[in-house]
Amino acid sequence: MMTIQYISQQTDTCSHLDNIRMACAAGCKWIQLRMKHADTQAITATARLAKEICDAHGATLIINDHPGIAALVDAHGTHVGKEDMTVAQARRIAGPHKIVGGTANTLEDILRHAADGADYVGIGPYRFTTTKEKLSPILGLDGIRNIMSQLRVKIPVIAIGGITAEDVPGLFSTGIQGIALSGLITHAPDKRQLISSLYQTIAHAITSNS
C-alpha cells in the first residue's frame, strides 16, 4: 500500500482534474477522486479522465462513494464514508478485485470495515478540516494512538483530516501505514518539493519506528 493518498479538491482556479494532474506530476501515486456535490454524470466523466491521468503517471485511482463508477471506468477501487454503504456492499458493486477502503472514527468502525473485507481504513479526522462536512469527533494524535494501541486485526490504517507535514512523525509513531491529504497538496506552491519531502519524512519515520 502506498503511504500518501491525495484526495482531490476543486478550487477557484483549478478543477479536480487540474489538481489531480498536478499531484500526479509532482509524484503522488495514490489518488482519490472526491466530488461530493456533483451528479453521477459529472463524476463519471471526470473519473474517466482522471483514470487516463493516473494511468499515464502509474498512479492508483480510487473513486469516493461510487463503486459503480469505479467499475464503469475501471478505476483501481473505491472508498466509502462512515455513513455510506458498507465495504461489503461496495465490493459487490465494484467487483471482487477492486481496492475498497472505508472511513472510520472509532475502533469499532475499523473492526466492522475489516470484517467486511476492507483493503484499508482511513481513520480521522485528525483535526478540524474545511474539506469535509459533517465531521465525526476529532481524534487528534492521542485519539489515533489510543485506537491503534487497541487494534488487534491486521489491516492498513491511514490517517486523514487536516494533516500537516509537521504531523507526520507523530502520526507514524502510532502504527498507521499512510496519510490522506487534500488541502496540504492542493495549496502547496511547490507540490513536487512537498511530496518528495513527505515521502522522505515518512520513510524516516517508518525506519525509526521499526
TrEMBL record:
Keyword Metal-binding: yes
Gene Ontology cellular component list: cytoplasm
Binding residues for 2-[(2R,5Z)-2-carboxy-4-methylthiazol-5(2H)-ylidene]ethyl phosphate: T129, T130, T131, G162
Entry annotated with the keyword Glycoprotein: no
UniProt catalytic activity: 2-(2-carboxy-4-methylthiazol-5-yl)ethyl phosphate + 4-amino-2-methyl-5-(diphosphooxymethyl)pyrimidine + 2 H(+) = thiamine phosphate + CO2 + diphosphate; 2-[(2R,5Z)-2-carboxy-4-methylthiazol-5(2H)-ylidene]ethyl phosphate + 4-amino-2-methyl-5-(diphosphooxymethyl)pyrimidine + 2 H(+) = thiamine phosphate + CO2 + diphosphate; 4-methyl-5-(2-phosphooxyethyl)-thiazole + 4-amino-2-methyl-5-(diphosphooxymethyl)pyrimidine + H(+) = thiamine phosphate + diphosphate
Residues reported in the UniProt entry to bind Mg(2+): D65, D84
UniProt binding sites for 4-amino-2-methyl-5-(diphosphooxymethyl)pyrimidine: Q32, L33, R34, M35, K36, N64, T103, K132
The protein, known as: Thiamine-phosphate synthase
Source species: Chitinophaga sancti
Lineage, broadest ranks: Bacteria, Pseudomonadati, Bacteroidota, Chitinophagia, Chitinophagales
